[in-house]
Design a protein that fits this description.
Blueprint lengths: L1 H18 L46 H13 L8 E5 L3 E4 L5 H12 L5 E3 L2 H10 L11 H10 L4 E9 L5 E8 L5 E8 L3
Parallel strand pairs: 1-3, 1-4, 2-4
Antiparallel strand pairs: 4-5, 5-6
Family: Belongs to the LpoB family.
GO cellular component, one term: periplasmic side of cell outer membrane
Function: Regulator of peptidoglycan synthesis that is essential for the function of penicillin-binding protein 1B (PBP1b).
Amino acid sequence: MIRSVQRSGALLFALMLTGCVVKQQTPAPVEPTQPTTPTQPEQPPAQPVPPPQTVPQPPKLKTINWNASVQPLVANMVQSAGVNPGSVLLVDRIKNSTNGSLQTEKATAAIENALANNGKFSLVSNDQLNQAKQTLGLSPEDSLNSRSKAIGLARIVNAQYVLYSNAQGDVKAPALQMQLMLVQTGEIIWSGNGVAQP
């Protein structure tokens, strides 16, 4: 009997629990929405663009008029006494003894141009000079000028004279010195000085 009471009590308890009215929940209303475009973060106001700064012009490099600079010296040398007409002359590359970088190729070319058709000298060609440099073990671009090298090169190409030139002092207005030397003895038979012309 106790068991049946216990069962009926449990049943009663279960019925009481189930007898509670459970409210049926209605689903939350769903409202359709329009898709929105993603908003970008607010940008700060545009800064005014400063006017471009003008770049200062670099200082113009002072160029040297090599033709005008060497012409008077060459003319003076050709007129000097003691030069035998028809002699072979080696024009050595001008030596840079200035305080800066100098266009020695242009200066040497200007000396060669001034001596073209001079009537007294025939010039050693660049090909002959490069071959002579190879014979002495020098590169064609060798810029270590010295009187002894110039005389050694002149002997290889069978020149009777060598013209040794030097630019010294301030690179903007170098002083020019030219010396005409006898290859056989190394004696300086003519010397001239001038200033490079802008």
